[in-house]
Amino acid sequence: MADKDTQIADQETQITDLQDRVKTLTKDAERYHGIRHRFIDVYRRDHFGGLTEEGESRIRAGSVFAHEGDATADARLYPLAS
User: Fold this and answer.
1) Taking CA atoms, which of 30, 53, 58, 72 is between 20 and 30 Å from 21?
2) Gap between the Cα atoms of 70 and 20, Å rounded
């Protein structure tokens, strides 16, 4: 019975860890898409002249992610040495 309880506890821990990873990846993906839309809209604006209000809105939203940074995401780029 103790083995089953241990297995259940381990699986619950794994589930929690996976849920945290999915949440982090989802947040990162949203930021990434915002920055990519910003890049493309700035290119359109600078090379083709003019932009829709939607494009300008994407630039403003993407600028928040591009210029303010994210310490948590940046920290994941440099994992601690084992």
Assistant:
1) 58
2) 17
In this predicted structure, the answer to whether residue 3 has a pLDDT above a threshold of 80 is: yes
What confidence category does residue 18 fall into, taking pLDDT thresholds of 50, 70 and 90?
Answer: very high
| CB-based contacts of 65, cutoff 8 Å, min separation 6 | 31, 34, 35, 38
The structural domains of the chain, with segments of one domain joined by +, span: 26-64
Instruction: State the number of CA atoms in the 13 A half-sphere of 11 facing the CB.
Output: 6
Transcribe the chain into DSSP letters: -HHHHHHHHHHHHHHHHHHHHHHHHHHHHHHHHHHHHHHHHHHHHHHH----HHHHHHHHHHHHHHHH--HHHHHHTSPPP-
Q: What is the pTM of this model?
A: 0.54
Distances (CA, A) of 3 to 13, 15, 17: 15, 18, 21
